[in-house]
Design brief:
Blueprint: H1 2-65, H2 70-76
């Protein structure tokens, strides 16, 4: 009688362990797939960001040769706004 009860308990524990192993394996596979997807998106974003940064640097270099682009660069925040003398009325 004891051996049947022990076998039954061990079989139930084995079945529970098997089910938990399958659940954890599936969770791991889904997480790895999600990680790879997000990692690819991050790489794409970083590549895009590098291209935009290179374009901004080229615009700043171009503004040294042609200052007509400065108002545009000021509106997007690449250059600080230049203070023009007499543009603000004096407070009295």
């Amino acid at each position: 009688m004891k051996s049947n009860l022990a076998n039954m308990v061990l079989t139930v524990l084995l079945a529970i362990s098997l089910l938990l192993s399958v659940v954890f394996c599936l969770q791991f596979m889904f997480r790895v797939r999600e990680y790879r997807t997000i990692s690819g998106q991050i790489n794409g974003i970083n590549t895009y960001r590098g291209g935009i940064q290179a374009l901004a640097n080229e615009c700043l270099q171009y503004s040294e040769k042609n200052p007509a682009i400065n108002p545009l660069l000021e509106t997007v925040g690449l250059k600080p706004k230049s203070a023009v003398a007499g543009s603000k009325p004096g407070n009295k």
